[in-house]
Amino acid sequence: MKLIGIIISKCYPKETRPIFLCTTHDVSSFSFTYRNAVKDVSKFLTREIIPRLKVGQREVIGHEDYKFCAMRWSDGLAVAMLTDKDYPPRVAFQCLTKVHHDFKSKVPEQFYKAVTDDGAAASYKDVLREFLKEFKDPSKFDAVTSTQQKVDESKKIVQRRLDDVLDNMQNLDKLVEQSDDLSTNTQVMFKTAKKMKKGCCKVT
């Protein structure tokens, strides 16, 4: 199970472009060639999906072998996490909630409300990195969660595929081409992966 990255952003109602306040990633498990691409995709997904989320709703968006877990609050903050498909959403949302609470306690709203550029809360990065390390092993959190609580929490989590969130694959292709978060190399890799998947046989 992999916890790949956490992104804190601000996105007030009716805003369509989130501003990244603080980000951290651990891409050490990926080959050097793909590390920047993984970070790019994490930012791309956050930028595109956060404005589409309902305030207060827990969302898990699945794409290929990865999960994008995110939650948006009425105070304008949203926290997102990129994991592999095996990372339990229950634990992911424990982390997102904890990060949100801690960030709010240390960074005043009047500060982040006025922010217009990505990375304005970079001073919080060391704290965010510690959260990533703390939740790297989800088993130590999941083990103390009762069975009934797991069932109840799972019912409250909305799970969708990326294609459904972004309407259709053609729309996704267009967003990939227009994204400022994806480098040219990452865009090429994204399209190549899609073509390879289309060419694979499906077992029914």
UniProtKB/TrEMBL annotation:
Q: How does it sit in the membrane?
A: Lipid-anchor
Q: Which GO terms describe its molecular function?
A: SNAP receptor activity
User: Per the record's keyword annotation, is Membrane included, yes or no?
Assistant: yes
Q: Which GO terms describe its cellular component?
A: Golgi apparatus
Asked if the Swiss-Prot or TrEMBL record annotates the protein with the keyword Endoplasmic reticulum, the reply is no
Predominant subcellular localization, coarse grouping:
membrane
Q: Which Pfam families match?
A: Longin, Synaptobrevin
Q: Which GO terms describe its biological process?
A: endoplasmic reticulum to Golgi vesicle-mediated transport
Record's keyword terms, sorted: Coiled coil, Lipoprotein, Membrane, Methylation, Palmitate, Prenylation
Q: Which SUPFAM superfamilies match?
A: SNARE fusion complex, SNARE-like
Taxonomy, superkingdom: Eukaryota
- Localisation per UniProt entry: Endomembrane system
Q: Where is the V-SNARE coiled-coil homology domain?
A: 143-204
Record-annotated Longin domain positions: 7-128
What family name appears in the similarity comment? Belongs to the synaptobrevin family.
What name appears for this protein in its UniProt entry?
A: SNARE protein
Say which species the protein is native to: Gregarina niphandrodes
